[in-house]
Design goal:
CATH topology: Glutaredoxin
CATH superfamily: Glutaredoxin
Distance between the termini: 28 Å
Strand content: 5-15%
CATH architecture: 3-Layer(aba) Sandwich
Largest sheet: 4 strands, mixed
Length: 223
């Protein structure tokens, strides 16, 4: 099966999505697959009924970072790619806090852009509209978390969920396994149960993220 493009739905807050994005970038570099970076909000999907929607807050962690991405995409789609890489690396590798406005401004400046774009993104309510539209779209396809890959605007797959993303030939082998699922529309789930040593490896890999986050992670039961 030949796939030439994929929509990759992400939330910068998610450490698993960031790991998968590294693998997806490697696949792109080898096969030339077009990757469209799309939004998904963990804050909204896991929101308690007594909490505000993320677009109702002056500043929301993942939502606001994606609003910055939405504005950057209007300037040039490549800036979404660069912003996700920069903010994701800052949070998940370096243990910094791109969800704080001053850090976001610093990262945008490092990209060679005007740091005031962060403020412009937050002051422009239509950036929330952009994030919400893409979030609602993937939820309508049954999406409930990230990473979620959408093929042909209709077929959604959650995952792959991993640490230590493969590269080179191994990345392509995983890509072939993932797109092979598209041949089986009623294959819903395969899972590798996590042993204690797996949980320890995950905790080690995600230590920068755990140390940098300013929120409590909440995850509702999956469908």
């Amino acid at each position: 099966m030949r796939i030439t493009s994929v929509d990759f739905h992400f939330d910068i807050m998610c450490p698993y999505a960031f790991q998968t994005s590294l693998w997806m970038r490697d696949v792109r570099s080898q096969l030339g697959v077009e990757v469209q970076w799309r939004f998904f909000s963990l804050e909204e999907i896991n929101r308690s009924e007594d909490k505000k929607h993320p677009w109702e807050r002056e500043w929301s962690y993942g939502w606001s970072m994606m609003r910055v991405a939405a504005l950057l995409r209007r300037i040039d789609p490549k800036f979404v790619d660069l912003w996700y890489q920069a903010a994701g690396t800052a949070l998940h590798v370096e243990g910094h806090k791109p969800h704080r406005r001053e850090v976001a401004e610093h990262l945008v400046a490092q990209m060679g852009l005007d740091p005031s774009l962060v403020g412009q993104a937050i002051e422009d309510p239509t950036t929330s509209d952009d994030v919400k539209a893409e979030h609602d779209r993937v939820v309508a396809l049954g999406g409930w978390g990230v990473p979620t890959l959408v093929f042909d605007s209709a077929h959604a797959l959650f995952g792959p969920v991993l640490i230590e993303p493969p590269s080179g030939p191994a990345a392509l082998r995983l890509w072939e396994l993932v797109i092979g699922w598209l041949e089986f529309p009623h294959l819903y789930e395969i899972q590798h149960p996590k042993r204690p040593e797996d949980l320890r490896a995950i905790a080690t890999a995600f230590r920068p993220y755990v140390d940098a986050r300013d929120w409590e992670s909440i995850q509702k039961e999956t469908p």
